[in-house]
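call fold target=Glycosyltransferase, family GT47
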Amino acid sequence: MGLLSNLSLTLLVFLFSVSVISSEDCTNRRIYIRKLPAQFNGDLLHRQTLTNPFLSPNSLFPHLSFNGIGPKTHKRTHSWYRTDHHLIEPFFHRRLLEYPCLVSDHKSADAIFLPYYVGLDSLRFLYASEDGDVDVNGHGLDLFQFLINDSPEIWKRRGGADHFLVTGRSSWDFSRSPLNKEEWGTTFLESPEFFNVTLLTPEARRWPWQEQAIPYLTSFHPASLIRFQNWITRAHHSNRSTLMLFAGSGRGSGGGASGSGGDKINIRRSIYEECDSQPELCTLIDCSNAKCSDEPIRFIHPMLHSTFCLHPPGDTPTRRGVFDGMIAGCIPVFFDEMTAKKQYTWHLGGDDDYEDFSVFIPKEDILFGGQQIADILGKITEESVGRMRESVLKLVPTIFYRRHGASPELKANRDAFDLAVDGVLKKILFKPSMDI
Ligand SMILES: *[C@@H]1O[C@H](CO)[C@@H](O)[C@H](O)[C@H]1NC(C)=O
Ligand SMILES: *[C@@H]1O[C@H](CO)[C@@H](O)[C@H](O)[C@H]1NC(C)=O
C-alpha cells in the first residue's frame, strides 16, 4: 500500500510537471535554434580558451565552459562560480535548450536564435596583426554566407529581422566604420548584412536600434530556491560597516600606462583620492588582471559590508560590478546615465524607477563642483537607505542568471535570461509595425 501510494504520488508529480510544460502558452513565443557548423560556436570556444590571454583560466575546462558559468569557487558552495562574463554566449545557448517553447520546425517559429559566439569570433579581428591575412572588415561575413546558402528560406522569411544573438562584449567592440581601419572594433554591427538582426549585449550604444542591453553574467548561480532565498536573507541582514566601496581595475588609467587614459579628467581618480584620504569610509578593491572574475569572494564579501557601491564609467560606461553589487544588496551609485539608466530598460525599469534603488551623482558635481561623494551619501537618511536596499534586493530575482538544470521552484522565478527572451520576442514581433 505504502509503495503503491508512493508510486502513484511519483506518477502524479510526473504527470503534473508534464502537463505544466505542455500547457505553457507558447503563442508568440516559439523559438527555433538555427543549426550552425561548429566553426561558429563550439570550435571557437575550444580555440580561444587554449590561446587567448583575455579569457580567464577557468575557461580551460571545456566541459564547464559550454555551460558558461565556470567552475565553483570552492567545493562546498552551491551558488558561487568563477564566471567570466564573456561566456554568456555559450551560457545563453545552453539555457535556451531548456526553453519550453523551442520548436524544431523554423516555419512555426516567432524568432530564430543564432548560436553564433560573436564575441569569441571577434577576437581574431580585434587583435589581428597588421600583416596578417585577416580581412579586418570581414567580421560575420562567413556566417552571412552560410545563412543565405544553407536553408536560405529561413533568412528570407524576414530578411533576418526575426533573428537574434547574444554577446558578452560591448556593442562598441562591433561598431567600427569600415572606413576607419585604425580604430578599435570590428564592423559586425556596421555591416548591412546584419542591420536587421537583434543583438543582446551587456552594453548598448547611445542610440541603439540593432541591440538591447541585458545584465552582465555574474558569479551567482544558486541551484535551488532555498539557496537563493538564504542568500537574499544574508544580504538583507549583513552588517554594513563601510559607507562606500569601489572595485576597479587598479589605478592604471591614471598612471599613464594605458596611453591616452593618462591625462584625461577622470572620475575614478577623484574616487581614489577620496578613498585614500578617508579609508574608514571607503573600501577599495583592486580588480586588475581579472583578479575579480577569477575570485568573486574578493569583492562580494566587501560588497556585503558596504552600504553604497560606486560605479563610475571607465573605458566604457557600464560595468559588471553594478550587478555583482546589487546581488550583495549594495546600493549602486551612478555618475553617468549611460552606466545603467540608458541601458537595462527590460530589467531595471524605466527612468522613474531608478531613485527607488540607486543614487545618481552627476560626475560634473564631483569633478568641477568640488563636492565629496562621502558627504553626499552621508546625508541620506537611514530610513531612505533601508528602503533603497529593499528595492535593490527585490530586483535580484530579475538580474541574476539561473544556471541550467536548476530546481523547478527556482525555475518558476523569471530571471535575467527569461526577461531577455521575453523582451527580444516582443521586439521582433513588433518590428514590422515600427518600420511603417
Ligand atoms: C533587411 O530588411 C529589409 C527590409 O525588410 C530588406 O529589404 C533587406 O534586404 C534586409 N537585409 C538583408 C541583409 O537581408
Ligand atoms: C556591526 O559592525 C559594528 C562595527 O564594526 C560592530 O560594532 C557591531 O557589533 C556589528 N554588529 C553585528 C550585529 O555584528
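return ok
The longest strand covers residues 242-248. Confidence is low (pLDDT under 50) at residues 1-21, 57-63, 253-264.
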